[in-house]
C-alpha cells in the first residue's frame, strides 16, 4: 500500500499567532475580569454566576453616556468599629430626618451622643421636605457620620450631577443661569424647553422641584458627603443590613426552596476559616444582597414597600405583601447549619425539610412613615414621621445601663426590644414640630 503523505488537521493548520489572536478575542468578549465587565457582560454572568451588587452597578453605569446616579454599593462596618460590647461605646441608628435639624439635635441630646465614643448611623432621606436640609448635611459631614442614601437624597444627587455637567460645558453656565433667572414653573419650563432647551433633562425630572432647588444650593462638601453614601451597610457582628427602604430574602418569582435561592444552601467559602460558623454566616448574608436579583437593583433598596402577588417590587403601600412580613416569615425558617457545615444541594432533601440551612439576618430600615414604628422579630422600621409632626426615632445599641440618656420629661417611655440572636436595643424618640 502506498504511503500517504501526512497532512495536519484543519485545527493544526491554524498558525500560533492566529491562536493567540483568537484567545484575545474570547477574553475581550467575556470581559477582562468580573470587576470590570465589558459591554455589559461579565465572565461571571456568562458562566451562569450572579453578579454582585457592585458589578451590577458598574454594568448599569457603563450603559449610560452620562451617569448622574453615582451609586455606591455596599459598606461593611466591622465589629471592631462599633464595639458595642465596650461599655464606653454605642451604636446609634437614626430614622429619616428629612431636614429636621432641630429635632435631630434634640434626639442626639436625649441619647447623650458623643462623636468621640459613639457610632452614629442614619437611614437615609436626611434631606427634603423639612426646613433645614443643608444644616443636617453640614452636621453629619462635620462629624463624619455614616449612613445610607434615601430615595429623596438620590434625586438631589442626580440633579446636582446634571447641573455640574451643564455648567462644565461651553456656554452651559450662562444657559443654566438664564433659566434660573426666569423663575419658571415646571409647566412653563416644559413649554419653553421644547423650543430652546439645549441640554435634555432626563424624563421624569421636575425643573423647579424641591430636589432641584436644594441640589443647586449645596456646597461642594455637602454634595460630596451626600454622594458618598452607599445603598446598603452590612454589620456582620450584628448580622444586620442597614438600608433605606428594604430588601428581599429570596427571589419571589421562584420557589423559596429552589437551589438557586441563597438561603437554600450554604455559600462557598474558600479561605482558611471556612469552617467557622460566623464566617460562613457572614458570607451567606452577603449572598442575600448579591444573589437575589431584585436586591441588586437600586430601586429596590431605595423604594421597596410591598411585593405584588406576581413577585414584583412595588413602591406603593397596600399593593401586595409588605416586604418586612415576607422577610420575617423566611427568617423564622432559618434553623442553623448542620454540624459538618456541608452544602446539601439535593432538591428532594430540601423539600422534605421544614427549615432552611441558614441563620436569621436582621434589617433596619426607614422610608415607611405611614407604618410608623414597625418592630418585628427580624426587621426594625424606625421612620416615625418626624417631618409630619410626629416623632424622630433612634435605636441605641450597647446602652445596657441607660447610659447617657437625658431625662427630658418626655412622656414616651424608653422601650427596650429584643434584637438578633441575643442582643437588645433601646428605642428612643423625641417629639417633632410640624414644618
From TrEMBL:
Annotated ranges, domain Calcineurin-like phosphoesterase: 90-183
GO biological process: polyphosphate catabolic process
Species whose genome carries this gene: Tulasnella calospora MUT 4182
Database matches in Pfam families: Metallophos (PF00149)
PANTHER family on file: METALLOPHOSPHOESTERASE, ZINC-DEPENDENT ENDOPOLYPHOSPHATASE
Organism superkingdom: Eukaryota
Coiled-coil residue windows: none
A GO MF label: endopolyphosphatase activity
A GO-annotated cellular component: cytoplasm
Entry protein name: Calcineurin-like phosphoesterase domain-containing protein
Amino acid at each position: 500500500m502506498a504511503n500517504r503523505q501526512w497532512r495536519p488537521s484543519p485545527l493544526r493548520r491554524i498558525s500560533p499567532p492566529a491562536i493567540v489572536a483568537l484567545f484575545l478575542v474570547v477574553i475581550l468578549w467575556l470581559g477582562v475580569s468580573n470587576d470590570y465587565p465589558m459591554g455589559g457582560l461579565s465572565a461571571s454572568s456568562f458562566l451562569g454566576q450572579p453578579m454582585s451588587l457592585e458589578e451590577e452597578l458598574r454594568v448599569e453605569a457603563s450603559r449610560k453616556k452620562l451617569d448622574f446616579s453615582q451609586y455606591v454599593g455596599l459598606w461593611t462596618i466591622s465589629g471592631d468599629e462599633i464595639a458595642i460590647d465596650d461599655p464606653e461605646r454605642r451604636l446609634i441608628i437614626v430614622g429619616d430626618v428629612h431636614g429636621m435639624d432641630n429635632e435631630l439635635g434634640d434626639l442626639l441630646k436625649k441619647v447623650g451622643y458623643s462623636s468621640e465614643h459613639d457610632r452614629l448611623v442614619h437611614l437615609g432621606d436626611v434631606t427634603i421636605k423639612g426646613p433645614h436640609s443643608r444644616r443636617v448635611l453640614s452636621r453629619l459631614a462635620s462629624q463624619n457620620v455614616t449612613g445610607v442614601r434615601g430615595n429623596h437624597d438620590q434625586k438631589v444627587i442626580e440633579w446636582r450631577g446634571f447641573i455640574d455637567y451643564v455648567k462644565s460645558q461651553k456656554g452651559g453656565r450662562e444657559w443654566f443661569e438664564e433659566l434660573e433667572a426666569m423663575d419658571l414653573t415646571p409647566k412653563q419650563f416644559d413649554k419653553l424647553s421644547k423650543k430652546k432647551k439645549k441640554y435634555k433633562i432626563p424624563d421624569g425630572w421636575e425643573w423647579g422641584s424641591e430636589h432641584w432647588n436644594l441640589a443647586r444650593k449645596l456646597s461642594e462638601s455637602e454634595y460630596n458627603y451626600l454622594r458618598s453614601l452607599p445603598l446598603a451597610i452590612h454589620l456582620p457582628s450584628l448580622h444586620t443590613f442597614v438600608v433605606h427602604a428594604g430588601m428581599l430574602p429570596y427571589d419571589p418569582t421562584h420557589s423559596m426552596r429552589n437551589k438557586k435561592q441563597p438561603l437554600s444552601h450554604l455559600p462557598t467559602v474558600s479561605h482558611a476559616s471556612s469552617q467557622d460558623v460566623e464566617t460562613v454566616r457572614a458570607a451567606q448574608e452577603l449572598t442575600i444582597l448579591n444573589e437575589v436579583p431584585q436586591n441588586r437593583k437600586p430601586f429596590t433598596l431605595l423604594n421597596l414597600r410591598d411585593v405584588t402577588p406576581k413577585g414584583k417590587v412595588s413602591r406603593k403601600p397596600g399593593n401586595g405583601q409588605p416586604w418586612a412580613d415576607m422577610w420575617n416569615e423566611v427568617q423564622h425558617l432559618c434553623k442553623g447549619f448542620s454540624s459538618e457545615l456541608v452544602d446539601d444541594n439535593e432538591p428532594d432533601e430540601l423539600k422534605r425539610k421544614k427549615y432552611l440551612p441558614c441563620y436569621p439576618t436582621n434589617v433596619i430600615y426607614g422610608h415607611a412613615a405611614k407604618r410608623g414604628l414597625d418592630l418585628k422579630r427580624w426587621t426594625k422600621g424606625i421612620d416615625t414621621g418626624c417631618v409630619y409632626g410626629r416623632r424622630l426615632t433612634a435605636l441605641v445599641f450597647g446602652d445596657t445601663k441607660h447610659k447617657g440618656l437625658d431625662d427630658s420629661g418626655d412622656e414616651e417611655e424608653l422601650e427596650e426590644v429584643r434584637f438578633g440572636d441575643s442582643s437588645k436595643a433601646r428605642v428612643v424618640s423625641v417629639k417633632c414640630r410640624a414644618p
